């Protein structure tokens, strides 16, 4: 399985290109994670987050099997990290990695990893996953490294973050200002979809 959207594109840039194409606002965090909200609009209409993630995985990697979803409401306790990397050595079940995230990532080295309702997950588990994606590798319970070089992580928020809300207000203000100075009467977006990265806002003129 490989990136089928653009052979020279990184998984992150391929995902961004598709989100721009669909007209979706999104946030790119410093660790490279893409964040969207559950109630979003695609091509100006309400869209299914899960179906869009499936299509994103298929367009990026050629198969919907490349989509790996973690429902973070199932990872509210710190010890549930065992579901991700496996049971610690010395404990019963340490040799069984079936169902773990590291096992699935070995089977699908090119993947779109989705953290659904990310705000419900234990902060240390979310932090560990983001750090792993940033480092492009994760270590299982046996100390074996799993490459994340071709893994893109998408977090889904139940409600927009403060950063996203602030960025949207900035975008709306700039659009109104440009309409006023350029005499734009047609109520269409002056800017392409919002791309908010790190501490800065990037907007593309249509």
* Largest beta-sheet characterization: 7 strands, mixed
Unreliable parts: 187-193, 196-206
Q: What is the domain total for the residues?
A: 2
CATH class of the largest domain: Alpha Beta
- Give the termini separation: 34 Å
In what range is the share of β-strand residues?
A: 15-25%
Q: Strand order, biggest sheet?
A: 5-6-9-2-1-10-11
Describe this structure in words.
The chain has two domains: 11-159, P-loop containing nucleotide triphosphate hydrolases (Rossmann fold), CATH 3.40.50; 161-206, no CATH class. The longest helix is centred in the C-terminal third of the chain and has 21 residues, at 162-182. With 206 residues, it is α/β, with parallel strands linked by helices. A hairpin with a 2-residue loop joins strand 10 (195-197) and strand 11. It has six helices and eleven strands. The two termini are 34 Å apart. The strands form three sheets. It has a seven-stranded mixed β-sheet, with helices on both faces. The protein has a two-stranded antiparallel sheet with strand order 3-4. The protein has helices at residues 11-22, 49-61, 82-85, 101-107, 123-135, 162-182; strands spanning 26-28, 34-37, 41-42, 45-46, 67-71, 110-116, 137-139, 145-147, 150-157, 195-197, 200-202.
SSE blueprint:
Layout: H1 11-22, E1 26-28, E2 34-37, E3 41-42, E4 45-46, H2 49-61, E5 67-71, H3 82-85, H4 101-107, E6 110-116, H5 123-135, E7 137-139, E8 145-147, E9 150-157, H6 162-182, E10 195-197, E11 200-202
Parallel strand pairs: 1-10, 2-9, 5-6, 6-9
Antiparallel strand pairs: 1-2, 3-4, 7-8, 10-11
